[in-house]
Write a sequence for this structure.
């Protein structure tokens, strides 16, 4: 397990290099630069040239990227080209807001979706199953930004029940959490239903029922216990995405999180802040996926035995 974890962590290095180059290149290819937001009528051509030299915009993109990566190798994520604050301090101040939004969204998604998926699988082919399937298809296909805007118009604009933007109260969590969690409910519910149906025809379930095991125990201990792997995979992927910042939802509700900060950085052509945010987001996503892989071994003894078996074989070979 330790060897596997070390390999996954080392693989993060080329991923970060590729991601940073892509985001740096895309920001550079976009029209306009950070200097365009600073130029005013009182500036001379010398002043403008000095600004270009200050931000190394008079040099090729690959030179600026190499300088950025050299600083990154020394643990320096740089400072925002707009505010002058360090990237790490801005990310650290925004990430708790993204964390709370992600946790509440995942909690809503799992608490509602897993029982609903089990219920649909238990009534496969019935009217309730068809209604659940239709609900999941709507949830998966519905754009989250559209749902967020509709909720904003109805409940914040017309009914004025909830605030339109983050104000620090619990009410400001309701709309973004629901908009962010609705697609999660649909995705997790669909995966749960499929996983339960795949396991439901196993011989050991018929044996358990023949022994007189209560149906509730058969469902939640045996069926769900053997269907966890695809469900955990789905939940883990969603956690990684939401912890990295749901940029669309955060932008719709002006949520002071990491995703909204990234959108603002790209709009302002702040390549240093954009790259630093993407790097930290990439690391968080990779850590979450690694944690999901380790949870597999705890949930499914067969996976754990596979790791142990490989270790024993290496010792015997040695």
């Amino acid at each position: 397990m330790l060897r596997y974890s070390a390999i996954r962590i080392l693989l993060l290095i080329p991923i970060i290099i590729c991601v940073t180059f892509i985001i740096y290149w895309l920001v550079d290819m976009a029209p306009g630069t950070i200097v365009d937001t600073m130029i005013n009528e009182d500036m001379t051509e010398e002043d403008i040239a000095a600004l270009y030299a200050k931000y190394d915009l008079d040099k090729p993109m690959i030179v600026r990227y190499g300088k950025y990566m050299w600083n990154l190798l020394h643990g320096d994520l740089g400072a925002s080209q707009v505010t002058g604050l360090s990237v790490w301090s801005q990310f650290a101040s925004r990430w708790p807001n993204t964390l709370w939004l992600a946790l509440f969204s995942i909690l809503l998604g799992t608490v509602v979706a897993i029982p609903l998926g089990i219920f649909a699988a238990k009534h496969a082919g019935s009217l309730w199953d068809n209604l659940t399937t239709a609900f999941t298809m709507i949830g998966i296909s519905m754009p989250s930004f559209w749902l967020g805007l509709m909720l904003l118009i109805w409940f914040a604009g017309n009914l004025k029940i909830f605030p339109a933007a983050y104000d620090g109260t619990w009410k400001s969590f309701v709309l973004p959490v629901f908009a962010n969690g609705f697609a999660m409910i649909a995705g997790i519910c669909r995966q749960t239903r499929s996983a339960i149906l795949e396991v439901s025809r196993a011989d050991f379930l018929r044996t358990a029922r023949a022994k007189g095991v209560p149906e509730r125990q058969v469902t939640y201990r045996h069926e769900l216990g053997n269907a966890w792997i695809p469900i955990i995979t789905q939940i883990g992927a969603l956690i990684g995405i939401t912890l990295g910042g749901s940029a669309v939802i955060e932008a719709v509700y002006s949520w002071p999180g990491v995703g909204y900060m990234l959108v603002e950085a790209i709009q302002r052509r702040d390549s240093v802040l954009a790259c630093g945010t993407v790097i930290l987001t990439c690391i968080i996503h990779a850590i979450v996926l690694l944690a999901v892989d380790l949870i597999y071994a705890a949930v499914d003894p067969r996976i754990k035995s596979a790791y142990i078996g490989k270790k024993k074989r290496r010792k015997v070979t040695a």
DSSP finds 14 helices and no strands in the chain. The mean pLDDT is 82.
